[in-house]
Amino acid sequence: MAITGLMRVWIYFCLIVILLEGISAQIRYSIQEELKVGTAVGNIAKDLGLDLGRLAERNLRVLSGTKQDLFKVNPSDGVLSVNRRVDREELCAKMALCVANLKAVVENPLEMHQVVVEILDVNDNSPKFPEENYTLEVLESATVGSRFQIEGAHDLDVGVNSIQSYKLNNNQYFRVETEEFGEDGKVPFLILQRHLDREQTVQHLLKVTAQDGGKPIKSGNINITIIVSDINDNPPVCDKPKYSVTVKENAPEGTFLLAVNAVDPDEGMNSEIEYSLRSKMRGIHSEPFDLNSKTGKLTVKAGLDYEEKQVYEIKVLAADKGAFSLSTHCNVVVRVEDVNDNPPEIEITSLSSRIPEDAPPGTVVALMGVTDQDSGMNGQVVCSVPSHLPFDLKPSPDGHSYSLVTKEYLDKESTQMYDITITAEDLGSPALSSTKLIHVDVIDVNDNRPGFSESPYTFYVPENNKAGSSVFSVIAADADSGQNAVVSYSLIRNQELSITSFLNINEANGTISALKSFDFETLKTFQFQVVASDSGSPSLSSNVTVNVFILDQNDNAPVILYPVSSNGSAEGVEEIPRNVNAGHLVTKVRAYDADIGYNGWLLFSLQQVSDHSLFGLDRYTGQIRTLRSFTETDEAEHKLVILVKDNGNVSLSATATVMVKLVEPKEAFAASDLQSSAKDDEDSHVTFYLIITLGSVSVLFIISIIVLIAMQCSKSPDYTSKYLPETNYDGTLCHSIQYRSGDKRYMLVGPRMSIGSTIVPGSHANTLVLPDRRRNNEEPKMPSADWRYSASLRAGGVMQSSVHMEESSVMQGAQGVLVQNWPTASSAADAEGGEVSPPMGAGVDSNSWHFRYGPGGPGAPPQHLKPGEVPPEAFIIPGSPAIISIRQNQGGEDDKSDFITFGKKEEAKKKKKKKKEKKDKKDKGKDDGDE
């Protein structure tokens, strides 16, 4: 029946393989394992009915996956043989059916056939136990019939070749039985047949044999030693009924507490005691202690905490190591002693993190509670805050809570926020502390007015600025924040100050625009006020004064004053005798410029002349003189075109035409009388205007001097101050601005210079610097005899100046003091100046500047000056004995009276001037005072 069932399974398997693989035929072979290599399995060609003659042509071969090398086919005769050792246990292990599936493939036509080789088991393996010796311990109190399982043997063969039975050698105490356990097969058990007696036999030696069902039978053995154990009938006993110990809670891990000791009267393992911890409430090993299981020593395992538990009642279990262990309990009490190991804890219960800066002292910022888990002095806490902060702590009566309050007014502008560190410290030894950080923001209130970056502001604006464009700006800052710091600007509109109506200010950024162009000749300086208001509620404001000085630009061309014809053109006719000598003064071209400084400094040049050898023009004075005597061949009439230009960056100019006629000496005197009367009629209105202009300028100058003297008398001496001119000064007179410096340098602000025309610091326009050339322990160097300086102060509405100059030097004052360009003195071609000599009573090392306006001299009354002031009578150049005197033309007789001269004495200059006047009258026969 078994064979029939196996065949049926095999037939079903072959049918399924044929259907799935689609193979035309199938051959099945059966062989035993362990056949010799080369043993024939069968003839595939004959079994498949293949033509042996075409077998080699059709390339017969066998394919079998991973097992293809177990078998091979001879392509010539089709015999399938063993290719290598076939081990069923290696290929199929414990499987009941072991087959090798091969595919026989031929070509022309291509065919593939299934070849199944079944490998049959042979009894080539003996039963084998895992180990040769096995020890089994059995209590002497074991009951009859007790079963003791032992590990069975293993056989790699299957079927009848596997293990079939176990046998035991003759023994009156034990027998062997087997039971089936599925895949494990038969498992052996030792059955106790009679009671054991340890005192009679301590151990029993057994031999178990496993046999298979093969032919011949193969077997395997195992030696079993049965050890009879003593009965554990005595429990351990503790040497003390109760153990007690005290330990501090900060005891480190491993601290020894005590040793539990118990004894057992049994022998061997029954007398060996093992200790373990037991707890009534929390089970095994729940306490923070460690117990040595062999010695019974109790130590600290984890950190103790007095605040969590003060007393531990521990049960120590002492048990022997018998097969049936007996045990007893030893009672241990551990008391924990408190130490200061808990820092105080701060809990914020209420917090106001935003406090206005005007909050009154005592305002509550935060409420907090303080706790310490320690006891006694270790649990008493004191809180504090840094003393430099404007906050204080107020404790409650019970000392367990505090309130944080302000102790003074806050100021957001100085401190916008506070990080307050609350420190809580207990009274333990050593003391423990903890901190809590509280962040408090200070809310801004509008308690600061806007502040300007400067007060007052001073701005310098060039004239002819573009109308509507910004000219300057003011800046104000508010120490507050948010809307309280948003600043808006406005002008104070004063009905008395009409200039503010032409100004406009940007409310957001303080930029000030001029709605019209400024004219230096009309307005030189003005003042107004700007108000800066914040956006707080209520709004706060502040104002500042703004001083504006208009800077002169070269926007006025020179105006010819003489010659002027009846129709208003700059043309004139001059008649001179033919017999005049070289150097004769023909006439003088007069002109003025409404600008100041270099913009108003005029130079004269000959633009057109009929004969360059006859006439010469002084570049600075405008005087036309003969260069040689006239001859008979010279023409009787000459045309001279004079170009007058200023010294601005972009020079402006005007021209004048002078017709010079040569007449006989007698005719010249007659013509002079007629011409003089005609000129008086024609130029009477011009003279009238000149007189009015000169008088007005003189009055303004006198008023300015009086105001300056009054200002100096009304304030204390200030050696770093400067004299400011009157705002009504029209820029036509020469005046001085005095500066002081500790570096032995002094400043002279040059002709017709007002504060409105002061150049922006950093430029060298209109500036004279005369360094102190004194040397220690050296004699002063005498200037050369030809060092002269002349300037013409011309009338006619304004006073003009011309200076002989070759280069411009710079005189600097103290730091931050305005400077003014001034031409340096140069050698003159003519002998106009006197000798250079030091002034009366002035030493070489004198550091004084003397400058004089208008008439005056040694006979003038002395002026009373404050210490450090410069008297206007004289002008001494440091390191030089020269004296500068400036005189204004009073009589209008000779133009050289307007010159600035360097000389020994004024008397020498007057004598020289009178001598020259006599010579001119003798040559011309008339008075040249108009020149």
From TrEMBL:
PROSITE patterns to which the protein is assigned, alphabetical: CADHERIN_1, CADHERIN_2
Positions of transmembrane segments: 686-711
GO molecular-function terms, A-Z: calcium ion binding
Gene3D superfamilies: Cadherins (2.60.40.60)
Keywords annotated in UniProt: Calcium, Cell adhesion, Cell membrane, Glycoprotein, Membrane, Repeat, Signal, Transmembrane, Transmembrane helix
Name of the protein in question: Protocadherin 2 alpha b 9
Basic and acidic residues bias locations: 893-909, 920-931
Coiled-coil intervals: none
Region (Disordered): 888-931
Record function comment: Potential calcium-dependent cell-adhesion protein. May be involved in the establishment and maintenance of specific neuronal connections in the brain.
A single Gene Ontology CC term: plasma membrane
Signal sequence annotation: 1-25
Keyword Transmembrane: yes
Domain of life of the native organism: Eukaryota
Record CDD domains: Cadherin_repeat
GO biological process, one term: homophilic cell adhesion via plasma membrane adhesion molecules
Residue ranges, compositional bias (Basic residues): 910-919
Domain Cadherin: 23-129, 130-238, 239-346, 347-452, 453-560, 575-674
Topology class, membrane: Single-pass type I membrane protein
A Pfam family recorded for this sequence: Cadherin_tail
Cross-referenced InterPro entries: Cadherin-like_dom (IPR002126), Cadherin-like_sf (IPR015919), Cadherin_C (IPR032455), Cadherin_CBD (IPR031904), Cadherin_CS (IPR020894), Cadherin_N (IPR013164), Protocadherin/Cadherin-CA (IPR050174)
Protein location: Cell membrane
Main location: membrane
